[in-house]
Prior knowledge:
By secondary structure, the chain is of the alpha+beta class. Helix content is 30%, strand content 23%. It has helices at residues 6-29, 52-61, 108-117, 129-132, 156-159, 175-179, 228-236, 251-255, 300-308, 312-319, 349-358, 379-393, 404-413, 436-443, 464-474, 479-495; strands at 31-37, 66-68, 74-76, 79-86, 89-94, 135-141, 144-149, 191-197, 201-206, 217-224, 242-243, 260-275, 285-286, 324-326, 366-372, 396-402, 424-430, 500-512, 515-517, 530-532.
Amino acid sequence: MKTLSAKGLKALKLAILAAPVIGIAGIASAQELKIGLSAELSSLDPHYHNLTPNNLMARHIYEPLVGQDEKQALKPALAESWKAIDDTTWEFKLRKNVTFHDGSPFTADDVLATMQRAPNVPKSPSSFNAYVRGKEFSKVDDHTIRIKTTEPAPLVPTDLSTFGIIPAKCKDTTTEDFNLGKCTAGGTGPYKQAEYVAGDRVVLTPNENYWGGKEPWSKVTFRMITSAPTRVAALLAGDLDVIENVPTSDVARLKGDAKLNVSSTVSNRVIYFHMDHFREVSPFIKGKDGSEIKNPLRNLKVRQALSMAINRPGIVERIMEKEAIPAGQLLPDGFFGTSKKLKPVAFDLNGAKKLLAEAGYPNGFKMKLHGPINRYLNDTKIIEAVAQMFSRLGIETEVETLPSANFFTRASQGGQGNVPEFSFILVGWGAGTGESSDSLKALLATFDPQKGMGATNRGRYSNPAFDAKLVEALRTVDDSKRDAALAEAMDIGMNDVGLIPTHFQLNTWASRKGVKVQARTDEYTLATGIRKD
C-alpha cells in the first residue's frame, strides 16, 4: 500500500475542499432573475398587439431581422447585413447556423412566413401592418431575401426592427395557441416560453443553444404588478430583483438607498390625448343640458382651446414630480424627424376660453374622458387633473378609467361597426423605430389598413396635407431631406391639433445591489440588458 507524503496529503485535502466550492460557484452563477413589470401583457403572440409590454416580452423569445441598441440605433440581429440594391430593392443576408428552440434551422422561408402573418392577425387592436405593407418579399436562397417596394423606401431596415420572426411551421398558429405555448418550435431568441398566466406572470428559461451566447440567468420570472407601491414594496422586501416604472414619488428615496441601484433615461414615449375627429355626433359629448350636440372636437378652435387649457408644466412639476418633460410634439427634441419650430403649448386659460367662445361654445359642453388604469406613470392622476382643467375652461368633464386590456380593445374597436368607441382618451406611444415616421404613421396618418397607415389612430384624424407630406418623407432616400420632410409633417399634424401631447416620461428602473439594468429609451425591460453588477 502506497503512503502519501505530507505534501501529497496536503494537496489531496485542498482538492477535496475545492470541490464543493466549485459546485457552489456553479449554482450561484445560474440564478433566477425576478422582474416586476408595471403593465399587463395582452398576449404572447408576437404579432397580435403592438404594445410595449407585449413587444418587450416577445424580444426574449422571437428576434427581429434588425436589432436596436439601448438608444434604438440599428444593429444586426437575424440579418447579419443589409444593403440597398437600388432605390426600390433591398437585400438582407440572414445569419447562418441559427436554430429555433426545437433545433430546427432558421431560413428565409421563416422570414417569408412571418411577413405573411404579421400584418394579418385576427382582432389585432394595433397591428404591425404598417411595417410590412407595400413590401414584396422574395427568397434568393436559404440565407438571402430581397424586398421590393413600389416607391423608394429608405426605412425598410428600421421597419424590420419592430417585430420578431416566427418559424414557418407556426404561421397558422392562433393567438390563443401562442398564449398556451403551442408554437412548440419557439423562436430563435435567448429565452424560451415556459409559463404564461394572463395578468399574473411569464416565466422564461434560457435557450442553451442561442447563437448569441449564454445568458447568466437560469430562469427569468416576470410578474405583472400594476400597483406601483406594491412593486416598490416587493423590491424592498427582496421578492423582486428589478422593477420598472419606478413611481415618481419614490425615485429620490430609492436613489438614496445603498442597497439599490437606480437607472434612468429620457423616454421616447409621449403621453397624449386622442379625440374623436370622425363622427358628426360623438358618443360621450353632450350639451350642458344633456342634449345631443354636433361633435365640437371637429372644430380646430375647440381643439386649440383644450390644448391651451392643459397646464403641462404643472403636470410635470406636481404630478410627475419632475420625472417628465413637457411635450409639444411626438418625440423629444433631437430625435430624427422632429420639428425645431414646435414647443409645448403654453397654458393660457383666458386665451382658451376666448377660443372656445369663438368656436361657438361660450358656455362649454359636457364630456367624458377615458383612460387605462396603471398603464402609464400616474395615468389616473393625469386624466383627473386634466378633467379639472377642462372643467375650469367651462367643459363639465367626467372621468372613467378601465383595466388596460379592456380599455385598449374598446378604444380601438369597441364602437358599433368595430370603430373606436370613446370620444376623448389618454394614451401613450413609444416610437418603436426611434424616429418620428413610426409615430406619425401610427397616430396621425389617415386610417387605412390596406396601406398600413393609422393603425393606432384611435381618433381617426385625417388631413390630406399631412398624409401627402408624410408619404413624401417616406419616399425620400436622402437622410437630411427626409428629416426635414418628417419635421414638416409633424408641424402640420401638431398645428392642426390632430392629437394633444402633454409630456414625455423619464424611464426609471430600480434593482437590488448586485444587479444592474441597462436603461433604454424604448422602455423595454429586457433580461438581456440586466447583468450581475
